[in-house]
Each structure stands twice: as C-alpha cells, then as structure tokens.
Design a protein that fits this description.
The protein is α/β, with parallel strands linked by helices. It has helices at about 5-10, 55-60, 90, 105-110, 115-130, 130-145, 160-175, 190-210, 220-225, 245-250, 255-260, and strands at about 10-25, 25-40, 45, 70-80, 80, 100, 180-185, 210-215, 230-235, 235-245.
C-alpha cells in the first residue's frame, strides 16, 4: 500500500456488524448489519434514543460485550487489520492501546477504594510496560492534561466532583496513547456548565493528540459542539449518515427529523 493510499484508508472500519443478545434460550438482535468508517482525527456522533443500539455498537468495537451477547455477523478492522472482537483474550493487546472508552458513569467505572493516580498509572504498567515510577509520572502528566492539579491524584473518587471524576475517566482512557476514543454518553450525568467544559476538553484533546472520536449521545446539541459527522441510529440500524451541516439542514429520514 502506498503512503497516499494509507492516508486515505480509514483508521477504523465497521463492516456489516450484527450483535445478538441471548436470554433464556431466545436470541434478540440488538444491532443489525451496521457499517461505517472513521478516519484519523475525525469526530463522529452516534445519535439515537435509548435502546437504539448505540452502546452495544461501542462495546462491540472495544470487545467489551456482556457474556450473553455475541457478534453474529460482520467485522471490525483497525488500520486494515481485523480485530478479534469476539475473543476476549486475543482482544486484550488492542483494547485501551488502540481504542479506549470513556464510560458515562465515572463513579461506577472508577474503583472507590483506590486513589485516582493509581487507577491512571495501572494501565501504563500493564500495557506499556512502565515501572511504577514511570507510570506515576505519566499519570501526573495526564491529570494536568485534563485540567486536574497533579497533587489531586492522591484523592479517592468520592472526594472529587462529578466533572472531575469524568476528567479522570478521560485521563484513564488516554493512558495507553490510543488513536480512538469512544465516549459513551460521557456528559449525561453532568450539569450544563460542566457538560460544556468536558466537551471543550474532548475537542482540545482531539486536536492536540490527533485523536479520532466516536461520541455516543441522544442529544443532538452535543454533536453540534464537537463532531464533524453524525450517524443516526434507530432500531439497531444506522438510518442516516452525513456531515453535521447536512443532517441539520436537510435531514432525510423521518426519525432524524423527529430528533431535531
């Protein structure tokens, strides 16, 4: 592949992906044959109501599906390489170092009995092979990067505000220098002012680190703030895909028009 074609190739491509959930012997399809591409540095909003399949899409890409879910069709490729999203052990080297997730419930995602600096440093040791001292120094840098004074690293999650906990989650997601960040409704539980601060931070980090961003939300105003492209999801399918301007100026699908 030439350097020119490499530049044009997508960073991430999702091809005909379907995921089924099983419960008491009954299989139910959560996402159905979805396909899209994400380029380096691009920010894409995945928008839809609760139950439309947004989070299942994110968890499938990151290889974090629950035990009762399975990838029934399709594939996910990172830089052209097929990711083993249906094999937890094989997916571990890829998870967090290539694609990482900022979860919406920071208080649930962070360990309440460990100081936050330890929780940021741990993936650096496990994934990057850093010593404890190197990982701690990296964690202090990441805290500063997301707008938290490094000396606050000694705090426990319950000692921080909701906005600061969400910043810690972003620092954890950045720890192993991934190319793609998936934000699973990262601002849902925050007040309007803190939400704006977190969105601004994500935009600044995306520009500074050349990150690609998949932002999952049910709020179209969030997408306008920090995304280049919008994908509208309805009943497990992507029903519309276009630039922010195109989607807002000329929505084609009835569901998109209802959302707006």
């Amino acid at each position: 592949m030439t350097s020119s074609s490499q530049e044009k190739a997508p960073l991430l491509s999702v091809n005909g992906l379907s995921v089924d959930y099983g419960l008491k012997g009954v299989s139910s399809r959560a996402i159905d044959s979805i396909s899209f591409a994400l380029r380096a540095g691009e920010a894409v909003g995945l928008v839809g109501e609760s139950g439309s399949g947004k989070t299942t899409t994110a968890m499938a890409i990151a290889g974090l599906l629950s035990p009762n879910a399975r990838v029934s069709e399709g594939e996910v490729r990172y830089r052209g390489e097929r990711l083993p999203i249906d094999d937890d052990a094989a997916m571990r080297p890829h998870r967090w170092s290539e694609t990482s997730v900022v979860f919406q419930g920071a208080m649930n995602a962070l360990n309440p009995v460990h100081r936050i600096i330890k929780q940021i440093a741990e993936p650096c040791m496990l994934k990057l092979g850093m010593s404890r001292g190197e990982a701690t120094a990296r964690a202090r840098e990441l805290l500063e990067l997301v707008g938290i004074p490094a000396d606050r690293g000694a705090a426990y999650p319950h000692e921080l505000s909701g906005g600061m906990r969400q910043r810690v989650m972003i620092a954890v997601a950045l720890a192993c220098r991934p190319s793609i960040i998936i934000g699973d409704e990262p601002t849902t539980a925050l007040d309007v002012i803190t939400q704006a601060q977190i969105l601004k931070l994500l935009g600044e980090l995306r520009s500074q680190l050349n990150l690609a961003l998949i932002l999952i939300t049910h709020d179209l105003s969030v997408v306008v703030e920090c995304c280049d492209r919008v994908m509208i999801m309805y009943a497990g399918r992507i029903v519309e895909d276009g630039t922010v301007t195109e989607i807002f100026a000329q929505p084609k699908h009835p569901y998109t028009r209802l959302l707006i």
